[in-house]
Design a protein that fits this description.
Belongs to the LysR transcriptional regulatory family. This is LysR family transcriptional regulator. The chain is of the alpha/beta class. The chain has nine helices and eleven strands. The chain is about 40% helix and about 20% strand. Helix 1 crosses helix 3 and helix 1 crosses helix 4. It is elongated.
């Protein structure tokens, strides 16, 4: 099967705009020509790539499978074009970073301001979620993970280790006894379907029969409840420059010797030489180094 790159470029435009007419306008191409090229590509692929609907196009399973590869080809084509531009040139394009919710909120969102100042032509896309995205399939360019990858094609470029502690709002801390026990606290933690995450598991091991006071499937909602004084959260110590944990009080409570958080900066070896990816990796490694030097750390999910 030989797929024409130009047809793949057109396919990507249709997939990203959601319709043949929108893609034709974006590409400044006649819609009949675009339809014909998509038919050629579908013939080469051996299966339909789109379901044509009144309001646009929806990818078929074959189209979904082809999309990550088409995106990577577009990225490499852009990088090849950039390599021909006389130096120095500023990196441009989209960089997708996958991270657990706490890391995305506490670390990546604030750090984006620094990255954009240094590289104003980069577009950052933060993919916040519990599931680990597949870098080999192009689901993200960079991944911040709480476990070291075992795949030989994935490179771990930096890592941070940190203690996991208990945090509350100052108004909540003022209501506590002098030396509270873990069971004395009103706990804020994960709701279904994320009960398997470390913070919930650590609490259930430390407090038999745990009944949380507040649960949510959204990290931002949990943190907002904690800041409002609803109760306590298990968080990795994250006292970096812009951390919201500066607003909270850390309690002197022991969660056990295994209460250690880890964070790994991971890229696929195929992506490591892309200039736009290198720039973001450099910024992330600098932030990791600052955290290690100051004794501050990053949050676990």
């Amino acid at each position: 099967m030989a797929l024409d790159w130009e047809n793949l470029r057109l396919f990507l435009a249709v997939a990203e705009t959601g319709s043949l007419s929108a893609a034709a306008r974006k590409l400044r191409l006649g819609q009949p020509t675009l339809s014909r090229r998509m038919a050629e590509l579908e013939e080469s692929a051996g299966n339909p790539l789109f379901i044509r609907q009144t309001q646009g196009c929806v990818l078929t399973s074959t189209g979904e499978a082809l999309l990550p590869a088409a995106r990577r080809m577009a990225e490499w084509a852009s990088e090849a074009e950039s390599s021909l531009i006389p130096q120095p040139h500023r990196p441009s394009g989209k960089v997708r970073i996958a991270a657990p919710p706490g890391v995305a909120f506490e670390v990546l969102a604030p750090l984006a301001a620094d990255i954009r100042t240094r590289y104003p032509e980069l577009q950052l896309e933060i993919l916040s979620g519990v599931a680990t995205l597949n870098l080999a399939r192009g689901e993200a360019d960079i991944s911040l993970r709480t476990r070291r990858p075992g795949d030989a094609d994935l490179l771990c470029l930096a890592e941070v280790h940190c203690p996991v502690r208990v945090f509350v709002a100052s108004q909540y801390a003022a209501r506590l006894p002098a030396q509270p026990a873990l069971a004395d606290l009103d706990w804020i933690t994960w709701a279904a379907p994320y009960e398997q995450l470390y913070s919930k598991q650590a609490l259930e091991q430390a407090i038999p029969g745990l009944v949380p006071a507040f649960t949510s499937d959204d990290f931002n909602v949990q943190l907002a409840a904690c800041r409002a004084g609803v109760g306590a959260m298990v968080l990795a110590r994250a006292l970096h420059r812009r951390s919201l944990l500066h607003e909270l009080v850390e309690l002197d409570l022991d969660l056990g010797p295994e209460a250690i958080g880890e964070l790994y900066l991971v890229v696929h070896k195929r992506q490591q030489h892309l200039r736009r990816v290198q720039c973001v990796v450099e910024a992330l490694r600098d932030e990791f180094a600052r955290l290690e030097q100051t004794g501050s750390h990053v949050p676990s999910p």
